[in-house]
Amino acid sequence: MERQALHDNVVGHIRDLIVEGILPPGIKLNERALCETLGVSRTPLREAIKVLATEGLVDITPNKGASVSSMSETEIGEVFELMSALEAFSGELACERISPEELSAIKALHYEMLALHARNDLPAYYRCNQRLHDRINEAARNSVLRQTYVGLNRRLNALRFRSNLNAAKWDRAVQEHGEMIKALEARDGKLLASMLRQHIVQKKEIILAELRTADKPQAS
Amino acid sequence: MERQALHDNVVGHIRDLIVEGILPPGIKLNERALCETLGVSRTPLREAIKVLATEGLVDITPNKGASVSSMSETEIGEVFELMSALEAFSGELACERISPEELSAIKALHYEMLALHARNDLPAYYRCNQRLHDRINEAARNSVLRQTYVGLNRRLNALRFRSNLNAAKWDRAVQEHGEMIKALEARDGKLLASMLRQHIVQKKEIILAELRTADKPQAS
DNA sequence: TTTTTGTATTTTGCATTCAATACTGCGCCG
DNA sequence: CGGCGCAGTATTGAATGCAAAATACAAAAA
User: What is the domain class of A73-219 according to CATH?
Assistant: First the structure.
């Protein structure tokens, strides 16, 4: 194993632990414990934590240590809001730049999602959905946009809201996807952009509403 | 001075050196030298470098050290492209959320810019311009958007293209600003967004063209 | 003269060590 | 009985030390 790989691996490893939900939001990161888990000393580990903090996945409190970032409701809303703009912009660019092969791949994913919807397999549907949006983002052919998108997406994934969509909303999301694919095929950038934006805003509303109903009962 | 402040100060300090152009793109960051300049040991310095690398201001080559990031022409174009979307979105949100005071402040900046334009003071105009766009971005009231915007802006500022706009283009930019202010006053989000986007795309074209003419002569 | 190769020096990456701050738990006092 | 203070411990932040890699340089051979 190369020498520098160590540091980057540590970043990637901890990031995975966070995004996979193994390290849930708010949990304290004990340096010593993580060192033993990852088999490295504190120096590279601390470097990794600083990096993850700049990525927004970790919060550092001076002299008190680091913890997995737990976003406030408003911050979650803000991330979704920005995501809506990035998705919309991705869609618009994708309409100009997508290749036939990429379009086919996206259509294939869409059909896969139709199947998963019919089969009522929500987790697989989510994974497929993520991949589809990723493909659109990649089709925009802008690596800076891509980086930004991926970074924000990780912050959201770290929160692990696998919302259990009710049937009506799921149906609607599927239908929206269908229309979005049509717009992409027609290379109608403006239309796709506005649909994607609306789609994400919708998602934001659903998840924020769910967060509120999930928190309130505990308080009462 | 607090204990943790040290690390963050190191990040801020080096970042300033880069954004101010004291450390120009491509230059190698000698750890030992920087340690002496900043009066810290290598540990916090290296942490800072890793952070700056995640911010995109520094490139790290394994076992070879760090250097101030020098973007390719395509990458610069990509950053501008994303900026155009962020500015547009900021404008749209600002139209919904801006306070009368914020609007007044922006109008004041605009008038200041008119004066500077008349006085032909380009550097001051640029600073004012930057502040105006910052204010719009802040008026969008989305801290995540703000963070992303600031980060990208720093990467561009590090490149230090203080382009010496010809009169016609400068006039045009000033006029566009006037129209943008009108749209903001009218709370016409869609209009402001499209204008801002066009404005930044314009800026991108100007700067990329200038980069090409600045590079080609050296090669020939 | 140019290239190549072997060595010395520098520089990077990581581990360890040291200092300072925060937490814990126990006794003491109110 | 409960709150407060103080010692002890743990944990964080930074400096130092050490091994591996890269660079620089010089001498020798083509």
Answer: mainly alpha
